[in-house]
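Reopening this ticket.

The earlier resolution said the output was attached, but the attachment link was broken on my side. Pasting everything inline this time so it's all in one place.
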Amino acid sequence: MATIRDVARRAGVAPGTVSRILNDDPRLSVQAETRERVRAAVRELGYVPRSARKTAAKKPEAREESRRIAIVMANSESQEAVDVYFLLIREGVEREAARRGFTVSAIYRGMGSMTAEQGRDLAQEMAGIIVIGTVDAAELGRVFSERQKLVFVDYMPDSPAWDAVRPALDHAMDNAFAYLESLGCRRIAYAGGPRFNVSLEGSSNGEPVVAEERAQAYERLLRSRGQYDPAYLLTLADWNAEDAYDGVQALLADHPAPDALIAGNDRLAIGAMRALQEHGLGIPDDVKVIGFNDIESLDYLQPSLTSIHLYAQEMGEAAVRMLDNRLAQPLSYPTCLMLPTRLIIRESTGGVPDARYERCVL
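Inline output:
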């Protein structure tokens, strides 16, 4: 089954652009030729968007009722269209679910998407729930009950009661630091946004989740070296390029430029690079930049962006396998699967391959 990434690769665009074209996003400004190229790739590959698959699905037989699962997401559809990382996780869930005979019957996106009563009804109907992102685990426990099969993806709740699949972000930061220090970087900055607990019933108080692993790892690493300066830990309002641009502009107005900057995702890295360049700083000669996620099209930036590859689609697939295994062979304890990351070296850090740091790391 063709994926949205396959379509993007065939059409020469980013997966998010494919999603926005197929959803007729009125805010997307692209040439008519690009739209037609995407639609041609869809036809050639036989790609069927999730909404069309849902519409075309036949009513399941009685046996299939026990193979129905739901997806609960922290991100809205508009956020997902921009941040393809979460789109790829969801696509991985749907792809592996289809392979294993599951039917994805519903997708719920936080902040008022269901009441507790609706959640309890859903728990009775579904074999399991895949939760993508930082959805409030305590609330999910009340809504779905402890017996309900839930698997979290990209987030490990503080409570040890849940199964989870997540990327090894702290190890990725260790590897990125070691690589930058091998290049002679000593003053290293980090720019990242907050993580919020998203409520299904819309009752979120807007408090950030404490454990944003990349920021925590950054502070830990620099404190261990006696080099921590809170001015270089940029806690941004959100995960957009504009926020990183503004944050780096404010940093450079009052402090010396860092030798290197690690951004919590590639969009933040792009915004940071623009701010650095507007201050007359060369990349990578003056400041080296690393992003996270390794979205497609980074090779086309100038300079191309070094990024930490997260196995997003594979995390979604692993979550379905974990759920399927638990249904087949119930365990008395929860499990956590941590997927490795990989540093993809490009021009923004010098572009010189180094096998010591480009390997997959946990």
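Reporter confirms the inline version is readable. Confidence is low (pLDDT under 50) at residues 55-63. The CA atoms of residues 291 and 307 lie 4 Å apart.
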